[in-house]
Amino acid sequence: MKLGIVGLPNVGKSTLFNAITNAGAESANYPFCTIEPNVGMVAVPDERLDFLRDMYSPKKYTPAAIEFVDIAGLVKGASKGEGLGNKFLSHIRMTEAIVHVVRCFDDDNIIHVEGATDPLRDIEIINLELIMADMEMVERRIDRAKKAGKGDRKFLAEAEVFEKLLAHLNEGKTARSFAASEEERELISGSELLSLKPVIYAANMDEKTFSDYSASPYYAKLKALADAEGAVVLPICAKVEQEIAELPPEDKRMFLEELGLKESGLDRLIKCSYSLLGLISFLTAGPDEVRAWTIKRGTKAPQAAGKIHSDFERGFIRAEVIAFEDLKKQGTMAAAREKGLIRSEGKEYVMQDGDVVLFRFNV
Predict the structure, then answer these.
(1) Contact 304, 316 (CB under 8 A)
(2) What confidence tens digit (pLDDT) does each residue in 248-293 have?
(3) Which of 26, 101, 158, 213 is least enclosed, having the fewest CB within 10 Å?
(4) Backbone Cα Rg of the chain
């Protein structure tokens, strides 16, 4: 999974990226301190996988991973190539979802590129640049469909759908908010539109505001906007996350408890990302390797097996499955097998989050 961290210059993007990836991207109080996208791989924390590691003492331990891309800030006119616009837009196109960092605090010592804090204005600036880039793509798609429609009328129906979408975008609205039938949505989803990508708004606050973020007027406005467009808001304090990242593991839990937090911003961001993209994890375990695999919710057993190796899907026979909680309760696979808790599932089985599975196949 690849997530792009975006936002206007000086809203806390690189500070947050540094904190969650420990990748050391340069962070400075001026625009464009991130010239090329910084990339960091983050292991997905999973206590279930840790339990299996303790059970098997495997040669290899492989958690699921998320790739974060810290994308250079943009300014008005990015869709026309202003600032670092063209690079910015191309890097967003490669991501599965957007983490849009929005500044929700006042600080005279940190320059705001637009002069003052206003999260809704900041969001509108970026959204408009994405929308304008999308409009160019949609116009080209309409032209191609109309030309193809001279030989095949089904393309005229396609052109009609994209003309409705173009009118919607022309009103300054994102492709995410376009009301479409399931068939139309499927057609549009293959067009790689930037404003169609799922969004998490990371409401970046200072330490004082973060302790009672629900009282922040900035947060309230952002939440109302996100609810209206079906997006997610994640309250976060990039400065606190940076402090957490610099602590040794044994001190992190204590620090979080002192702040009244159950988990770090990274853990909350990962959970939001999985939920937003409809993802779950299944687990494989043995003396050679304990591993988590990320799949779309609703994936059937053969396709899940294919995540491991195409031969597993091609020669799928069955999946031997146990729910993690059942395995944890019994303590060992042998005990779980004695209780009849390991199920044999066929090609129509829909994988569940936390399934511990062994695939049987023959090629």
Answers:
(1) no
(2) 878 888 888 888 888 888 888 988 999 999 999 999 999 999 999 9
(3) 26
(4) 23
Residue 236: predicted pLDDT? 92
Nearest in space to 133 (alpha carbons), one of 199, 200, 82, 73:
82
Q: How buried is residue 217: exposed, middle or buried, by Cβ count under 10 Å (0-12/13-18/19+)?
A: exposed
Residues β-bridged to residue 344: 320
Q: What angle do CA 172, 178, 183 make, to 5 degrees?
A: 150
- By CB atoms closer than 10 A (0-12, 13-18, 19+), residue 303 is middle
Stretch 105-121: mean pLDDT: 79
- Alpha carbons 176 and 298: distance in angstroms, whole number: 22
* Residue 334 φ then ψ, to 5°: -60, -45
Q: Which residues are paired to 319 by β-bridges?
A: 345, 359
- Which residue carries 């990226």 as its tokens? 17
Q: Which two tokens stand for residue 57?
A: 């003492």
Closest CA to 4 of 106, 103, 126, 117: 126
Q: What is the pTM of this model?
A: 0.83
Which structure tokens are listed for 244?
Answer: 């957490």
Q: How far apart are CA 101 and CA 183, in angstroms?
A: 32
Q: Residue 6 phi/psi, 5° resolution?
A: -125, 170
- Main-chain dihedrals φ then ψ at residue 46, nearest 5 degrees: -150, 105
**Burial state string for 242-272 with b = 16 or more CB within 10 A and e = fewer than 16:** bebbeeeeeeeeeebeebebeebbbebbbeb
Torsion (CA) 264, 266, 272, 278 in degrees, nearest 10: -130
Q: Are 149 and 156 in contact (CB under 8 A)?
A: yes
Cα-based distances in Å from 147 to 144, 153, 167, 242, 302: 5, 10, 20, 53, 40
Q: Are 51 and 68 in contact (CB under 8 A)?
A: no
